[in-house]
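It is worth pausing here to work through a concrete case rather than discussing structure prediction in the abstract. The textbook approach is simple: state the sequence, then state the predicted structure, then interpret. We follow exactly that order.
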Amino acid sequence: MEEVIRINDNVRNILIKHTRKTNVAESLNEILKNDLTRKMKRYKIMLKHFENKYKLDFDAFEASHKNSDMKFEMEKDYFDWDLAVTAVEDLEEELRSLES
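Step two, the predicted structure:
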């Protein structure tokens, strides 16, 4: 579904200038891709942090600790790690949808 929006000339000019695109739609697409990429990098840093901390990838960590009693810090890490894994997957899918 397409939506028509009004953008004042100043905003339009700034969008075009800073993205070096030829129209507002391309500019907004570029800005959105850049924002999604920035967020994905942040979550990938989280993934690396947990992989280095536990010397495992998420799936191996989850498999080895799934039925164990985790201490508070480890449980918090688990939920944050799971969030980061899911976020990266979602962001990758959203980026792919913008490419097509």
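Step three, interpretation. The mean pLDDT is 94. DSSP finds four helices and no strands in the chain.
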